[in-house]
Each structure stands twice: as structure tokens, then as C-alpha cells.
Design a protein that fits this description.
Elements lengths: L2 H13 L3 H23 L10 H36 L5 H5 L2 H21 L9 H28 L2 H18 L5 E2 L11 E6 L4 E6 L1 H11 L2 E4 L6 E2 L4 E6 L8 H6 L2 E4 L8 H15 L7 H19 L7 E5 L5 E6 L3 H15 L4 H17 L5 H19 L5 H4 L11 H14 L15 H9 L1
Parallel strand pairs: 4-9
Antiparallel strand pairs: 1-8, 2-6, 3-5, 3-7, 4-6, 8-9
Helix pairs in contact: 2-5, 3-5, 3-6, 5-6, 7-10, 7-11, 10-11, 10-12, 11-12, 11-13, 12-14, 13-14
Length: 461
């Protein structure tokens, strides 16, 4: 079994809703068959014993209640899916399917149902599984409490800010786990000193979900080769397109194509596991959907930007100054050369569409400016030029949409809360922007930020 097959199996198990409840149902049935032996071995006081009719009634009621409650949980899940797709982004559903609480509550309900059904079969005129009936009642109580926890959890997770926080957390984990392994390389892959002599192509189309980097490094070290990966994780690769080029001297090792192709996991859609840019993509989708004319909720976009700032701060604190990245083996020899994202790529992804769709929302423009100014102080010095360029683009957007508006000065003022933040600190940040920003003439715009008196003069005219 190849690494890509194992990866797809893990992804299926993580995203499947039925596997854990199925295991719970089987476990409940097995315990229900074993429990009567416990009743035969332990003597229960007469006051705690059930009559056959009472035990049958109680167990039948538990079975009906658990079946109804399981159906209710499934109905709530379907409604949540519909609401999330309409309000947030269809890409977010991949995280929702993996919610452990959803799978656990379904497993608890179905396990209680099968446990009670197995006990019901053992009720006879001369034998009643008293301990089992009491355990089934306790399981009902535990399942109800678990259901209340699940309901509280999903209600809180339906808030846009909670969704943004969850996606940002997944993006940070992905970046910390994988993106920092890549070391920037100044030269292009064609200049590493060897020529490609073999190419491994994809057998079927799909997005690159993940790559077995450790396996690729180990294969390259074993065969003394360098591997060039022309596509970034998240790229859609048509069938027959190159997945990896083998660089080195000598013939192609036996079985190289199958081994290397098995280290690339392709799927119908991207995942966040090794692709932190996909987390930004989901958050941007949520923000621009909130900014659509049908929803018109700029505050949601501002809340998304709050959590997006934290992810960008993490990315901006990492050297990403080259489009070509490398991975080395334990001896320090370059083994993988790959296309990687620059800081500008992440920043453009986070900014462009929100700035475009939020061009008419004052609080979005204010929050974008505050985010950029905050990032300018916290990212690596080599990343600040890209931030200054985004500030210029933002200034042009403000000029274009509020150049003749009485609210021009407000739209050009940074505010961490969108609207309503401390004005004094915002003014200081505005003055600081004038010191760090370059002229925007390259974009055909007026000076970056107009002084407040400019808007006053416009009102007097």
C-alpha cells in the first residue's frame, strides 16, 4: 500500500460520519450480549430487581428514544450543513465533517440503542438482566447530557467569528507543521548543477492534497538523486502532467515511477493539512460572501480579518523570500527542490478580494489599513515592502470610492475595530503610515493618505 493510499484512507476516516457510530453500535451490541453473564455472576438485592414486563417496557422505551434522538441529531447536522454552505463557504464543510463531538454523540446514541436491543432479547420470564437495564438507563442519561453538549457546541460554532477562529487555527497548525521545513534557495532549479533525466507524471487528475516529504527525501538519498516538484501543494494537476522530475546522473532506478507517484496524494479538493494558503482561501471566501449585496454584513468581514491577522503574522515571521524552496537530508545535501509560495502570495490572497468587494464598506477599509500597519511592525524586514505596496493599493481604492465623499477622512483612517476603536491611537497610526508608505503615483493615485483638513475643506466647498 502506497503512502498516498494510506493518506486517502486517513482522510476518508477523518471525514466520514458513519464509521465511528458504526463502531459504537457494534460495541453496544457486543456488550449487550456479554452483560447477562454479569447478572448471573452477581446477586442483586431484590429492591433493585425488575420484573420481566417492566424491564421489557423500559428497554423498548430506551430503544425508541435513542432512535428518535439519533434522527434529530442527523436533522440538526443537515440544517447546519445547509446554513454553513449558504452563510460561510462550502470549503468549510470539510472541517465540520471532522468534528469529533458529532461522531461521538452519534456513537453514544447508537451504542445505547444496540445495547438495549441486545438486552431486550435476553429478557425471559425466569431471567431479567437487572444490571444491564440499570446501565442502559445510565447510558440514556449520559447520552442526553452529551447531546446537550453537542448542541451547545454547534450553536456556538455557527457564529462567523468561531468559524474564522477554527479555520485560522487549522491554518497555523499546517504552517507550523510543514511550511517551515522548506529552506529558500536563491537559484532556480535549472541551476542546481544537474539536468533532469526522468519525469513522473500523474495517472489521474486532481488537486495535490499532500506530499510525503520524508519519503521523497529518503528515496532521493538512497538513490543519490535530487527531486524537483514543479507544482505547489494545492495546485490542480491534469492527468499526464509532471508530478516530479528526477535530477541526477545515471539511469532511472527500477520502480521509480510507481514509488514516487505513490508519495503524492491527489484528491477532488484541497486540504489544509499541508496547505495553509487554503485556510486563508476559506477565510477570504467567508469575508467576501458577507460583503455580498445579498448578505451585506461587513462586521463579519472585520471579524474574519481579526483572525486572519494572526495567521499572517505567523507566516510573515518566517523567511519566504524565494519562489524556489529546498529540503535537505541529515547530511545537509539538497534532496528536494520545490515551488513554494512567497510572502507576497499569501498577502495578496488575503487582501485582494476583500479589498475589492469591501471597497464601499468604510469599516472594512479601516480594518484592512489597521491590519497592514500592524503587520508592518511585526513581520520580517524583508516582507515590509510588500505590505507597503498593499497599503498603496488600499489608498488608491479609498481614493476611487470615497474621493468625493464627506467620509473620505474616516475611510482613510486605520481602526482595529472597523468603526468604534480609539480615535487617538488611530490618528497616530495614520501619521505613522505617512512615514512608511511610498508614493502611490505608480498606481495613478493621489498621495497615500489625505490630511483630515482636506475632507473639511471639501465640506466647506
Amino acid at each position: 500500500m502506497t503512502w498516498s493510499t494510506r493518506f486517502r484512507i486517513r482522510q476518508y476516516l477523518k471525514g466520514s460520519i458513519w464509521v465511528v457510530p458504526f463502531i459504537g453500535g457494534v460495541l453496544g451490541a457486543v456488550l449487550g450480549l456479554i452483560e447477562p453473564r454479569l447478572d448471573q455472576a452477581i446477586s442483586v438485592p431484590e429492591a433493585w430487581q425488575y420484573s420481566p414486563s417492566t424491564a421489557s417496557t423500559v428497554l423498548a422505551a430506551i430503544i425508541g428514544a435513542m432512535a428518535a434522538l439519533t434522527g434529530f441529531v442527523v436533522t440538526v447536522t443537515v440544517l447546519v450543513v445547509q446554513m454553513a454552505v449558504d452563510t460561510f463557504s462550502p470549503r468549510y464543510m470539510r472541517l465540520w465533517y471532522r468534528d469529533r463531538a458529532l461522531k461521538a454523540v452519534l456513537a453514544a446514541l447508537i451504542a445505547t440503542l444496540t445495547f438495549s436491543f441486545a438486552l431486550l432479547r435476553r429478557v425471559e420470564p425466569d431471567f431479567v438482566p437487572t444490571i444491564g437495564v440499570a446501565v442502559a438507563g445510565a447510558c440514556v442519561l449520559a447520552s442526553l447530557l452529551f447531546f446537550m453538549f453537542f448542541l451547545d457546541r454547534i450553536l456556538h460554532r455557527l457564529r462567523p467569528v468561531a468559524v474564522a477562529a477554527l479555520v485560522a487555527h487549522a491554518g497555523r497548525q499546517a504552517f507550523e507543521a510543514g511550511a517551515r521545513k522548506l529552506e529558500a534557495l536563491a537559484d532556480e532549479p535549472e541551476r542546481v548543477g544537474v539536468e533532469p533525466y526522468g519525469t513522473v507524471c500523474s495517472e489521474h487528475a486532481g488537486a495535490i492534497q499532500a506530499v510525503d516529504e520524508r519519503g521523497l527525501v529518503g528515496w532521493a538519498r538512497e538513490h543519490d538523486r535530487i527531486l524537483f516538484i514543479p507544482h505547489a501543494i494545492g495546485d490542480f494537476v491534469p492527468a499526464g502532467s509532471p508530478l516530479v522530475e528526477i535530477l541526477g546522473v545515471g539511469g532511472e532506478p527500477n520502480g521509480a515511477e510507481r514509488q514516487l507517484a505513490g508519495m503524492f496524494a491527489l484528491g477532488a479538493e484541497r486540504t489544509i493539512e499541508q496547505d495553509p494558503a487554503f485556510a486563508l482561501r476559506i477565510m477570504v471566501d467567508i469575508a467576501i460572501k458577507a460583503l455580498s449585496a445579498a448578505i451585506n454584513d461587513p462586521t463579519t468581514a472585520v471579524q474574519v480579518l481579526d483572525h486572519m491577522t494572526e495567521l499572517l503574522r505567523l507566516i510573515g515571521a518566517t523567511p519566504l523570500d524565494g519562489r524556489t524552496k529546498v529540503m535537505r537530508d541529515d547530511a545537509g545535501t539538497i534532496r528536494i527542490v520545490a515551488r513554494g509560495r512567497q510572502w507576497e502570495d499569501y498577502l495578496a490572497l488575503a487582501m485582494t478580494e476583500i479589498r475589492e468587494y469591501g471597497a464601499g464598506a468604510i469599516q472594512v477599509l479601516r480594518r484592512l489599513r489597521a491590519m497592514l500597519l500592524e503587520l508592518h511592525d511585526t513581520v520580517l524586514p524583508e516582507h515590509r515592502e510588500a505590505i507597503e505596496a498593499e497599503l498603496e493599493r488600499l489608498t488608491v481604492t479609498v481614493e476611487r470610492n470615497f474621493g468625493d465623499s464627506v467620509d473620505f477622512d474616516r475611510a482613510a483612517t486605520p481602526d482595529r475595530q472597523g468603526i468604534g476603536g480609539p480615535t487617538a491611537s488611530a490618528r497616530l497610526e495614520q501619521e505613522r503610515f505617512l512615514a512608511v508608505s511610498r508614493p502611490a503615483q505608480a498606481f495613478g493615485a493621489a498621495p497615500p493618505i489625505p490630511r483630515p483638513e482636506r475632507a473639511d475643506a471639501r465640506r466647506r466647498r
